[in-house]
Design a protein that fits this description.
With about 160 residues, the protein is mainly beta. It contains one helix and 13 strands, in the order ββββββββαβββββ. It is about 5% helix and about 40% strand. The N and C termini lie far apart (about 40 Å).
Amino acid sequence: MIVKMKKLRDNVILPTKNNENDAGFDCYVNGFLRWNSLSSKFIHYDDNMNSLLVLQGNIIGCKLGFSIEIPKGYYMQLVPKSGLALKHGITVVNSPGTIDSGYRGEGIAIITNLSRISYEVKLGDKIAQLILRKEIKTELVESNVLEDSKRGKKGFGSSGR
């Protein structure tokens, strides 16, 4: 399947696969942004900024520098890079982050630092993986009755540690 991508800036590295059988395409940092809750606006950092320090618990947006044309009936998801998550506590906040087939804006990986050590994200770093998924057409219907199940209403650790 062919999925078209458009570079939004000259220095963009489009997503790549490290190995032929990898499910995800590695996405590369091409800029930074942050939400300012006081002004209710995004702060777009200078395009010449080469890195950004992510402190414990901070959330930043990593611009990916491309827009994408996903075929109808599909969507893409941004998921964490396992090495970044395990070694540095860097993960995709809205994991998985969904990119709908009708969206044509810039891809952005929203990340956070779960570790106690600050982490420097640099332009060109691999920051997330992009995975194509098939959409399943779903209709939600209100009902007054649901079938019983063995699990029932048990949740939040009810199956054990």
